[in-house]
Amino acid sequence: MRGDLVRKLAARCLTTGLAVLAFVVLALTGATGWGLALAVAALAASAAEQRIRPGADLVAETVLIAAAILVGYSRRLDDGLNLALVATGLVLLGLVLLVGPLRTAGGLEIRAANLPVRAWTPLIADRLGTALLGLLAVLALAAALALPAGVALAASLLVGAGAGAVALDLARRRFRPRAGGGAVAAALRRHQPEFLLYFSAPPGSEYQVTMWLPYLERIGRPFLVVLREPEFLTSIAAATDAPVVYCPTLGAMDEALVPSLRAAFYVNHGAKNSHCVRFTQLTHIQLHHGDSDKAPSANPVSGIFDRIFVAGQAAIDRYARAGVQIPADKFVVVGRPQVESIEVRPEPARGLAHPTVLYTPTWTGHHADADYCSLPVAESLLRRLLERGATVILRAHPYTTQNPASARQLGRLTELLVADRARTGRQHVVGAAARELSLTECVNSADALVSDVSGVISDFLYSGKPYAVTDMGDQGDRFVERFPLAGSGYVLRRDMSNVDEVLTALLDTDPLAEARWATRRRYLGDFPAEAYAEAFLSAARRELAPAETLTASTPA
User: Fold this and answer.
1) What's the rounded Cα separation, in Å, for the pair 226 and 246?
2) Where does the UniProt annotation place the signal sequence (predicted)?
3) Beta pairing partners, 223
4) Which pLDDT score is estimated for 366?
């Protein structure tokens, strides 16, 4: 997005500019102290850029900074040609040239968490760039203090020895791999997992996995999580006791998918899912990370899976309505287990003087046909809610801040609610406080929902409470045809011309109260509340049962 690009360009310009300036000052002027200070500033900028642009190529900048520090060091010592500094320079040159390739090679190694193995080499390789920047900072300090050149050489040789050990171990792994895989594969074979959860997604998508982990654990069988992006390893490993394995290559996947596995679960339609679907000995099951009438919820790619677990009949109808032909025997209705903790209100609550309203704007999507975001027109909606004495829970989609315009719009809404809270004392929930609450907690706290087209509506539907849906495409009568779930809610036009009418129905009269129960059964299945999640757990266990067990249990 545009804001992210600006940050990256700013970091790039700052790092390069400071590196060039430090070298020029030290090489062409006598201001040694200022030059060393600029070199340290360039190192700090480089470290910041590495956080903003992981894997950034900083070879040219690092060479300039190293050269500048060595020039300043030599000038501080003022003893002519110093062989120790020459040797230090050669070691630094070797490190600069090695860091990038070693980091790339380390990034191709399988990594794991929640397993009794420690693969130190890939981790060290990933941090060599930081180690080099730290070494240069030490050399800059040694130069400022005019310490003997032997100190600089010793420090450089120490880091160089570490890099050499990493290089040798990575070469051994690449050219002399162990038969049957490495330590991770051996630990997984001992673990004997029966199924895996496969995950590939953009940054910030961890919620797609964490919403399913408690239910996968309740299946009661050993499993593992396979990741295709390294940034998820720490956060997802913290959310489960199951082994979590990062597989950067297809070869790493071959190592991680041990013979005991019978099934693979998926939570989205990521492009890399095909890398796992190729293992035909597994049963491949799509779970999705929500149930909604959005266009992606009827993705034709679902057809590649052996089973598609859906919340209710409405999900099956959605594919048919979109013209996606998938054999009926692939679908399994399992409900939406994540709603089991949502409190149900069996009787409508009408005419509340001070209602609590949950507002959940979605993000703009990757494509125009998936842009259901109401943030551009939401201010008038919130002002009307405040006029009615409502307390608002503002819970935006996790991807909202990826779009600078959406981030600004969300910021203005947050300021509006914070100002009203200070003026009236109404305890609106916004910002970090809203993010800390689970969706279930938000639903249980609310009397009504205003949402864009998203999976939040399906979850809220379980409560039996009223909801309104924003028609951001100005589709009028066709809106309910495209998004049938809106038929049991109150539709807000894009121009908000009917906002008062909708809020009266939502908060006062609620004429669709009875219709929602039929919609609830169609979208979320008809399962007893006291054992709602058992539908999913039983279906998952059936897929894990050996074929002979299923045959034996089938009546003749």
Assistant:
1) 6
2) none
3) 195
4) 66
Which tokens hold the place of 88? 């230090």
Helix, strand, coil percentages, rounded to 5, for the chain: 60, 10, 30
469, HSE (Cβ side, Cα atoms, 13 Å) = 29
Strand partners, 394: 359
**DSSP designation for 429:** B
pLDDT single digits (tens) 435-490: 889 999 999 999 999 999 888 999 999 999 999 999 987 777 889 988 899 999 99
Do the beta carbons of residue 392 and residue 413 sit within 8 Å?
no
Q: Which residues contact 553 (CB under 8 A, 6 or more apart)?
A: none
What is the C-alpha separation between 282 and 285, in angstroms, rounded?
9
Confidence class of residue 203 from pLDDT cuts 50, 70 and 90?
confident
473-492 per-residue burial string, b: 16 or more CB within 10 A, e: under 16: bebeeebbeebbbbebbbbb
Q: Which residues are 113's β-sheet partners?
A: 244
Mean pLDDT of 267-286: 95
User: DSSP for 41-85?
Assistant: HHHHHHHHHHHHSTT---HHHHHHHHHHHHHHHHHHH--S--HHH
Q: How far does Cα 429 stand from its chain's mean position?
A: 23
Three-state SS sequence of 306-327: CEEEECCHHHHHHHHHCCCCCC
Query: HEC states along 82-110?
Result: CHHHHHHHHHHHHHHHHHHHHHHHHHCCC
Could you report how far apart the first and last alpha carbons of the chain are, in Å? Answer: 60
Scan for tokens 């009418």, then name that residue. Answer: 501
Report yes or no: 535 and 527 within 8 Å, Cβ to Cβ. Answer: yes
- The pTM (predicted TM-score) of the whole model is 0.78
Q: In terms of Cα–Cα distance, which of 477, 295, 425, 364 is closest to 1? A: 364
The two tokens of residue 159 are 């880091």
- Lowest average pLDDT, out of 192-201, 300-309, 327-336, 394-403, goes to 394-403
Give residue 253's identity as a one-letter amino acid code. Answer: M
CA distance 305 to 326: 10
Distance CA 258, CA 124 (A): 27
pLDDT tens digits, 91-136: 999 999 988 888 888 888 889 999 998 777 888 888 888 899 999 9
Closest C-alpha to 344, from 468, 533, 534, 530: 530
User: Sheet containing 391-394: which strands, arranged edge to edge?
Assistant: 391-394, 356-360, 448-451, 467-471, 490-493
Q: Residue 226 forms beta bridges with which residues?
A: 198, 245
